[in-house]
Amino acid sequence: MNRFFVPRDAISQSTIEISGNDLRHIRDVLRLGPGDHISVLDGYGNEYECRISAIGHRAVRCEILSRSRRASEPSIKISLVQGLPKGDKMDQVVRACTELGVSEFFPAVTERTVVRPDPASAVKRVERLQRIATEASKQSGRAVVPVVHRIEGLPQIVSMLRARPEASGGCGWIVPWELENGEGLRQGLMRLRRAGHDIGDCDGNGQDPGDTGGGPGEIVCFIGPEGGLSRDEVAMIREAGGIPVSLGPRILRTETAGIAVVSAVLYEFGDL
Fold this sequence. Notes:
alpha/beta; 7-stranded parallel sheet; 5-stranded mixed sheet; 7 helices; 32% helix; elongated
């Protein structure tokens, strides 16, 4: 069944209206008509089975037949802070990590970021990345569209993550770093699971706060751009409670590292 995401204000008690690019796709590409069934999602986990009742010039009107919660999201929330790479590599990262289950993307300008878009270009780039996330959500059967945040400097992103309300719940930060020799990714994730790591209790030393028998509700992964993160940036993340980890003896490309880390997190927490 064809799947479409709509904003919540397009959904009433018994009908849904689909407009914009999806209207043209339904009418001109798929050539669907009244009586055909489609699946509509609101981006918050709700799925509606619908029957098309009318196709107009401005919208497709659908009758809601049933509503359900789609259980396709990981049990743990994963956010990815990705150092802005060159070219279209960020497109690849957003597409693949959306398919895997990432909930939020934070494109970051770091010390070694080569491409630094001006404000107008940055807005257009984020809009493109958001479209890619939406299409990848449709393709992969997700019920939620990840949020692609605006491009910011890494210090601003770290400050924002520490200050937002979600930080008062269980949250663990992982920062893969090629100069880390003491702890691997698996050991870092196991430590977070044992600790029930709560960012609200982060005291700046990155230490295991003790075995609480739980695990984090969210993992935030920090990935550097080409050239990686600097010592000062890793120190800043560590001071905020992050755990530097090694990804092994091989150096991964920036567009590969995030995919590898997200996959490992999902595996470790039983979602892959």
